[in-house]
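Human: We require from you a standard protein entry with sequence in single-letter code and fold as tokens, and nothing else.

Assistant:
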Amino acid sequence: MRLLNATSLKLEEFFDDTLPPYAILSHRWQDDEVSFQDMQTCSALQRAGYAKLKLCCDQAVKDGLGYAWGKLILIPTSVKVRQQLAFERLGSHIPAPRLSPYNWLFTMLIRWPVDTCCIDKSSSAELTESINSMYRWYQGAAACYAYLFDVQNDRASFSMSAWFTRGWTLQELIAPARVKFYSSTWDNLGTKADLKDEISSITGIDIEVLGGADPASFCVAKRMSWASQRTTTRAEDRAYSLLGIFDVNMPMLYGEGEKAFLRLQDEIMKHSDDNSLFAWSSTNENDRGLLAKSPSDFSDCSNFIRVSGLKVNRSPYFITNMGLKIEFPMIGWAMNTYLAALDCEIEGSPNSRVGIFLKLLDEKDQCVRIMFEGKDKRTFDSKLVAQSTHVEIYVRQRVPGVRPEHQMDVMYGFWLRKLPQTASEEYFSHYIDEVISRNTWNEESRFFEIPVGSSGTAGAVWYKSLRPDTTYSVLKLGFDASFNPVCQLRGSWWGPLTMLSKPGGSVDEKLDPTWISGTTDGHLDPTWISGTTDGHIFRGDRLQGPIPQVATFKNRVTRNNLPESRISIAEEVVGKQRVWVVDIELPAMDTKYLE
């Protein structure tokens, strides 16, 4: 780190463990600032920006920190120029021999291309090193002077100062332990400690941070919110000015535009598993990736905190050539749509966990982030997390255009186009005893539809036999955690003679989705299993879409001479919706159908 010796007026280089105390200047860039070339040609004195340097230097001397030039100098190559500018500026105010050689003012301005006099902007290595060190330099200063050129002595304009709207001044406010504010005429307006309540109201920065709390103790989304209303001249600087806030480093690539903010988020992911990084919002209704476009997308995250209970996201995530690979606890919310649970919640509102909407694409394990019913995230009771399933997905940041036919709405349910109503076979007759569904059942339309916010079983049709022992059989339809259609046929009508009782309780109890996993009532085999278990489970593949998925089975394996029965599941267009259509045929029996 280079500091200018206030006595010899020579630049000297120090390592971190030998740095003397120094002051640092924070200001909003204006027109006619002093440039690197001005410092070499002695024309700096004619610049309008020269006045603030005099005021800053005078204050440094008053604070016992001396003067080493000002904010706008890095390496004037001519000692003669250094001496001429310094002594012409200081005059008789600072007798050089009386200054301690360890009284310094460090004001190494590195925000190229805004403040071009500090570094050689042709050196990308020097630029990168300076920007990556900025937060640490401000943090190590004995004092930081914030010069508010647009604030008068009456203090009424303090909250309206442009200094509070600039991207770079965020870290210049947070990093130093001691910040003193000065008006346009260099009148003392107060310190960060004195004004922290007002500054917090102006900036949205938590009072604890202004009091010295480590920014890392706050979730990523909240820290992003501090920068959401701030602007920079260059789009890249909105990202570069946040490196210190998130304690990450990355090279500078001016010309990359908004890609810089994507790179920043990538670096944050490499060093933190805080997935509140994905808790941003946007009014853009197009499908998106998981990373935000700019800090502005976090404007509504100022009251977000890390979850107070157990974190549920447990696997690392990273960017691959197929997109961001990540595992979320997913709650089925609508057709092909998840509510993914994040490990953050609303401050002061227990059980207000934040979730975002992700939609499956017509590619295996590929998702996009979407808006659902006008919202791209929602809060929910943490108890719902217990109903979630951990699903590993890939999310591309750049989403390819969606073909018009794939924009058609998909019904979250089934159409039972051909459904057995009664069947007779010697002494073995059945009829529909009860239909249980989450929607109102209509015998003519025969739709099972799952409401928004629910998942699992769409409905069940219970058949009753005319046997003296009154056995039951059941047809269940639902979707698994990957939104594949699943059908279960269980009981004496569909297979071996089995004593099956019809459950009681609420609709939710009757439509318990545990059967879908196949852990108790069947198998995960994608074909019918007959004669070996108490029931059959057929699991379709959502990626096959309109291709009919057909399976055959023995209606009663105790009568092997019976012709095979048949079930077909296919995604078809019905009206203006894509719907999973189910057809069941029992050719071995005298069967009456609902169709």
Q: What stands out?
A: The chain is about 15% helix and 25% strand.
